[in-house]
Amino acid sequence: MAINDFFLKIFDTNGDKIISFDEILVKIDDVVWGIPTIILILFTGLLLTIRCRGIQFTKLGRAFKQIFKKNEGAGELSGFSALCTALSATIGTGNIVGVATAIAAGGPGALFWMWFAAILGTATKYAECMLAIKYREVKADGTVLGGPFYTIEKGMGSKWKWLAVLFAVFGVAAGLLGIGTMTQINGITSAVNMAISSDVAFTLAGNEYTWATVIGGAIVTLCAALVIIGGLKRISKVAEKIVPAMAIVYVFLGLSVLIMNATKIPAAFALIFKSAFGLEAVAGGAAGFVLKEVMDSMQKSMQKGIARGIFSNEAGLGSAPIAAAPVKTDEPVEQGLVNMTGTVIDTLIVCTMTGLAIVIAFCNPQFVAGDKVGVQLTAAALSFDLGGDGVSVQFLLMLCLAFFAFTTILGWDYYSEKCLEYLSNGRMKFVMFYRVLYILMIAIGPYFTVDAVFTIADITNGLMAIPNCIALIVLSGIVAKETKSYFDRYPTLS
Question: Going by DSSP bridges, is the β-strand pair 137-138/144-145 parallel, antiparallel, or unpaired?
Fold first, then answer.
């Protein structure tokens, strides 16, 4: 139990059953991430893949080369800076904690659906970032504002402004209540508390909070406040330095696990595919009952895998386009290519390493997960796979998670501020007030449960994705036209 346990309790119609706050969140999450949303997101990625002629396969090599090309044109950032800003918001707790919670809730098969959504989502990420530059607004002072809100308003017409406003409202909510604040700080303090033992600082509603949690949360809040006040350029400079360095450290840790357990990887893949399609339920019993079990298991695996996959790589969410909009370029397609590499790096590389490490441990009957969740589960699996006392692994995970999550906090502050800027017609007094509120939410994040903060993040992410995906489907013809025109003019990288 944690602070969220006494935020809200509701009696059912009989007056004798209490529904906890966490249970209410799960019910809302099941509605938001029901079959219609899953179909919408997958259909969007499939449609864009077809209309862009499999751009995530045919142009991926060129996309990685494009990252280091010098940008010219209107804007504020280089393409590399924009990618790092976007990655700073994606490579975070989703890769270390989110994967673990997805597997714990949806089974090993959740990892398969993360891959599936990421492959289609790479085309989605390309399209949404390309459109953000095409429809962005460059102000008189040279600053740039762009994202799905302008893509919807300008691309679909003013009659659709309500949908743009809806996206911006959900974007503010996602930053303030979900992926931007509580999930990240909660992940950091959980990792610190795991790696550094300390005494109990205080007890609240029967829950004990250690000094590691209290001090760690306060330090991160203070550091975040100092950077957030500096705005976009300070955020991008911090991201440029931290993201590549910590990604290398974590990839090294993940590769170590895979190399040392190479012979166990086939069994892990077998378990992932079996779980993805609910085949674990096929173990006897009546045919109708087994079929229901299979379908329920598969739906849960899809729901958690796709939801947490989007939490991690943000493809279709509409956040990365906000970071892409200020890039110094007059060619929208070029930055679309750069940003689509983020999905590959985030999910197909970083998340895969985490997921395989956990599933490899699950394949060994000697591994006991117990009631471990989030970073504790990831740390336990990595420690088991590598052997030893696990102290070194816990310390490395703490460092990686702390820096990853910290940059995600910064990136999402920028995203949600831009959504608010659109809603308030650029009134900065609202933005300044929002920054204070954002910092306050960071401060209280450590005192919620892991399940609660991730469920809130899933809900707000799903709400953001719906209007964004609708716009991408409607504008898919323009995406295809712009893409063909660019590659006709520039068949090779100049």
Answer: antiparallel
Asked whether 281 and 9 are in contact (CB, 8 A), the reply is no
289 CB-side CA count, 13 A = 4
Identity of the amino acid at 470: I
Question: Does an H or E element contain 83, and which?
Answer: helix 79-90
The neighbour count for residue 189, using CB atoms within 10 Å, is 28
pLDDT band for position 236 (cuts 50, 70, 90): low
Average pLDDT over residues 374-396: 81
State whether the Cα torsion 184-188-189-194 is positive or negative.
positive
DSSP letters spanning 170-187: HHHHHHHHSTTTHHHHHH
Backbone phi and psi for residue 143, each to the nearest 5 degrees, phi listed first:
-75, 155
Distance separating alpha carbons of residues 230 and 240, to the nearest angstrom? 15
Helices within 264-387 (DSSP H only): 265-276, 287-313, 320-324, 332-343, 352-362, 374-386
**Contact between residue 397 and residue 85 where contact means Cβ atoms under 8 Å apart:** no
Residue 149 confidence (pLDDT) above 50: yes
70-116 pLDDT, tens digit each = 766 655 556 566 676 666 666 666 777 778 888 888 888 889 999 99
Beta-carbon contacts of 179 under 8 Å, excluding residues fewer than 6 positions away, are 94, 311, 408, 412, 457, 460, 461
Say how far apart CA 396 and CA 251 lie, in whole Å.
Answer: 12
pTM tops 0.85, yes or no: no
- Position of tokens 């938001």? 32
Residue 201, helix vs strand vs coil: strand
Percent of the chain whose pLDDT exceeds 90: 31
pLDDT tens digits along 460-490: 888 999 999 999 999 999 999 999 999 999 9
How confident is residue 314, by pLDDT bands cut at 50, 70 and 90?
Answer: confident
Q: Which residues of 93-121 are buried (b: 16+ CB within 10 A; e: fewer)?
A: bbbbbbbbbbbbbbbbbbbbbbbbbbbbb
| Residue 224, SS3 per DSSP | helix
Kindly tell me the burial class for residue 402, based on how many C-beta atoms sit within 10 Å of its own C-beta (0-12, 13-18, 19 or more): buried
